[in-house]
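Researcher: Next sequence.
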Amino acid sequence: MDHFIEKYRANSDLLKFRRRDEVLTNIIESFGLEVLKAFENVQLLILKPDAVCSGKALGITEFLVEHGVEVLGAWPLFSLSEHHYEELYRYNIDLDHKKPMVGAVWHLRNQFVDHPSIACLITTTPGIAERQVYEVTRSLKGDSTPLMSQSGQIRFDFNGASKAMNLVHMSDDPISTLRELRVFFKEDFIRGPLHTLCDRRRTDDTSRSTMFQAARCVPTQTTDADFPAATLRVLLMITSQLATEAPPFSKHIESFDLPAAHNGPRERLLALDGFFQTLVKKDFSTFCPATSLSFRANALLQVSKVLLEMRSWDTQRIRYCRGVLKSFDMTINEWDFQMLFSNAVFNDALKAALQPITKSSTPLEGAI
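Model: Next structure:
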């Protein structure tokens, strides 16, 4: 048993906490070493609400299947409580963690409660059995900050929105997998049906069918879950109301073409930020030919200025923007607001993505 546990101790954040012995003892007493070993090449994947509700779940599954990953089982998760989410990430918000992600948990807890997600058990195909699923998916998911991910990774190719809304969660090792499964499923279900699934080998078509059955139960509800597009959408909504009193400003915003999605979230963000910077440096009075603006037009221009200055966002400013727009009967799509708000929560990560990447720069992984 010690040899099996030590195999993961060096690479598992979970096993570096001062309460690790408590965690290990509890899991082994509950399931036994046989069940734990059955999950040695089986991982828990959670497709987060931003992936599910934007209709990206099947695309992400297809991506994984093409890279040698099988889906053993998939279950929609409805009616979760904040407790489920907090328990899932309890060691990421622990003060023992070198990078406690309190902000992400605080921001995302309502999304997991109000919107569905999908839990999956995944493994590697026989062709790459010498590589465990944890090793394979670690390189496939991308940096926890999608803006710093790379082409060929989930969070890049499917345009993750922020460090909090980054599409997928994956357990780190078999010990984490069992601990996290217990958050959502009863122990008898884990020892029985889930344990049995671990011994099955599935074809690519079976993996796709399994995922499709789960995904069809979950309605898509969002726009495109794309942060640069969401920011531009909000500005276009504002400029549509400024076409009469500030037509030059409206035309400037409407003239911008956001690079296509295949360019990845960071390149698209850099293009958007470059465009915003040129507008911020201009004298806004040149956008307003009228000698005096109405109260409404002046307020909408002030909101536009806040949105253009992405590098200075904080949660209070984004709430201010939503409040002003609401007072004029203008509603930001809830998911668009969540994307703006999450990048205000993690504005340091946003600003870091807007800096040139040097050769010495290395992506920082995170479990959120």
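Model: The longest strand covers residues 69-77. DSSP finds 18 helices and four strands in the chain.
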